[in-house]
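Page 42, continued from yesterday. The earlier attempt failed because a stray header line got pasted into the input along with the sequence. Redoing it now with the clean sequence only.
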Amino acid sequence: MDGSAAVRVGNSWRARLALGFEMQGARTVLARRSHVGPLRVQKPFYPEGGACHVYVLHPPGGVVGGDELDIEVNVGAHAHALLTTPASAKFYRSGGACSLQRQTLRLAAGATMEWLPQDSIAFEGCNMRSDTRVQLAADAHFIGWEILCLGRPASGERFRRGACRTRFELWREDVPLMLERAQFDGNAPVLSARWGLGNANVTGTMMATGANRQTLQCVRDAVADQDGGVFTASLIDELLVCRYLGVHAQAAHNAFVQAWTVLRPLTLGRTACLPRIWKT
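This time it went through. Structure tokens are written below.
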């Protein structure tokens, strides 16, 4: 059901997408889906058999001040869902109102989710907030990343004005595995200082559960710094955390794809199968 006409407030959108994945026989199916406003999914794809690949679409192509996008995904017991997006999320300049993007991802017992969106671009002058919370059952598996680009240097645009706040939380039952907070204000010292971004405008974080020291070493051996950027990997208990800092969002994506290609067989028991949309 499309209720977009009912959720337009002035020039802003209130959009919601709810997805539910379940095991049916030997494969995962998109058993439940509902949307309000301009959030959609294409049909499920099965390029590797049982795992379900889904592309999350935002037809307007950009987020303006006052917009609210809410995505909720539930993966049932032993189901396996891979979600990605066909293009960058663009947060446009705001007259003052905040734009909010919220993702809530829940994984039941034995479930697997791969959360692999394209980058988010914070245009100069935007006022944005992005919140992601991942809730895992005791034996669920997760691989995911988020990439943020501040401004558009290729167009001569730096992040001199605006506000960008991000939050990423990863929980296993009631125990936090990773709690991340970041705030970037236009022309703030953190953007240029060596203890901050050091004039890099692209930052990314990737996380994978079920890792160990062998996994860590394999990723370090496989992924090299790209296009002047810096890639690092570290291990916190069972959680592998990869970081990227650089000036090209595509380089961050390439580095994370290389890490994912190594991680997938080691932590999920599956060879890498790139979503088809990445090749278009």
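Notes: Helices lie at 189-192, 213-222, 249-268.
Reminder to self: strip header lines before submitting.
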